């Protein structure tokens, strides 16, 4: 792919259907993005080389998709749920215990494979994916106090690990990344205060009604403006746009996301930019390097099994094992790590693919654990 025109856009829109096709396979519960990643693998570096992930326009579109995906993930964190907030103390204890175990495992894996990425592996194995696990919980109809505690635990782990990832993926730039993260957090906090004030005065509702009546999509325009501004700030302060998107999503989720805005965001994210990002990510991964470095296959397997083991330790605090395994679902953080690592040449050849292999193993474990938990609740 030497250029980037409408023919390329048509190809990307077409291969984006790989996600729904794979996800529609009965009983397997395969996440949508798996098909999109596989399509990227086939058409990118690993496969036929049709897609050039280094094309500047392709990268820009992928970055927009990355920011939107993390924005939507942030809105999925149940920060407004009173029931979830009441379960925070026990959930926090489980998340911290998981982090301690993951830190030990991360140090062992970094030493064994000689990568020097102990902190990165610890964050990966501690992480949970709210965007993946919460829809699974909802679709299976899982309920009760243990599930509420699990939801709070996933929200804590997801938020903490997304904040920590830019700091640990390149420890040499950690101080700079920390300052950038503080700037993003300060902007998000200021935006939260402004939105609360606007909401209390009724201005937000009036703007919403006017926009809906006139079909102006003012809320979508405003959110995209703020998202792109935060993403620009993130790049200038050497922080991943992942943090900008997620921070804005948390703010919008905290003040309440209008259904119309949620539908609009769903349309532009899941309809085009999200699939394009995951196809780009698949195209940028060089899975053939795993064959050239067989130890990295073992690294991916070890990361996946290590994540499940670290989360299963929560069983010592009374959490059912099926729910503990369900909390090990990883997607956003490994995807972000592979994306940031590949863009900044921070990972060894094939290491990004190993991270994704570990994430896929947790996805498979989550699917099985969810089915087991659903059967146990039905009894």
UniProtKB/TrEMBL annotation:
It is a multi-pass membrane protein. InterPro entries: Cation/H_exchanger_TM, Na+/solute_symporter_sf. Belongs to the monovalent cation:proton antiporter 2 (CPA2) transporter (TC 2.A.37) family. The chain crosses the membrane at residues 6-25, 32-51, 57-79, 91-113, 119-140, 147-169, 175-198, 224-252, 264-284, 296-317, 354-374. It comes from the Bacteria. It is found in: Membrane. Keywords: Antiport, Ion transport, Membrane, Sodium, Sodium transport, Transmembrane, Transmembrane helix, Transport. GO terms for cellular component: membrane. One of its GO terms (biological process) is proton transmembrane transport. GO terms for molecular function: antiporter activity. It comes from Mycobacterium triplex. This is Sodium:proton antiporter. Residues 21-364 form the Cation/H+ exchanger transmembrane domain.
